[in-house]
Amino acid sequence: MLKTGEWLSLSIIGLVIIFIILTISFFAFLIGPDSKGPQTTIEPSSSFIQIIFISIGPAIALSFFTNVFSKDISQLSSILVITSGIILIIGMIYVIPLISQIKNIEIPIWILNVPFIFIGFGILLFSMGIINFKKSKRKRKSTFDFNE
Question: Which of 7, 36, 58, 106 has the most beta carbons within 10 angstroms of its beta carbon?
C-alpha cells in the first residue's frame, strides 16, 4: 500500500502532465489554423496565469510540502518527484519551438520566457528529488544497521 507522500508525488506527476498539455494547447491556439493566429481576440496573460495556477502552482507547492515537511520520505516518492522534474523539463523543451511559430498576436515578454522559467522549476524538482532520495537511502541504511 502506498503512503501519503507517495500518493502526493503521483498527483505531482499528474499536475505536471496537465500543465504541459495545457501549455501546448495554449500555444497551439495562439498559432492558430494555418499559422494565422487565433480567430478571436484574446488576452494571453490572464489566460496563461489561469493555466499556471490550476496546474503547475499546486504541483510545486505539493512537492515542497511532500519533500520538505515530511519526516518519513520514501524512495518511491523521491523517484516520482525526480520523474516529474524530468517530465517538466522535456515538456518545456518541446514548447520552446512553438513560441517562434506564433504570428499576428503580441505576446508579453514573460509568456515568451515561460519555458525557461519552468525548466528552472523542473531542475529544482529534479534536484529536490535527488537530495531526498539520498536522504531516504541513508536513513534506510542506518535502520538496517541498527537492526543487525
Answer: 58
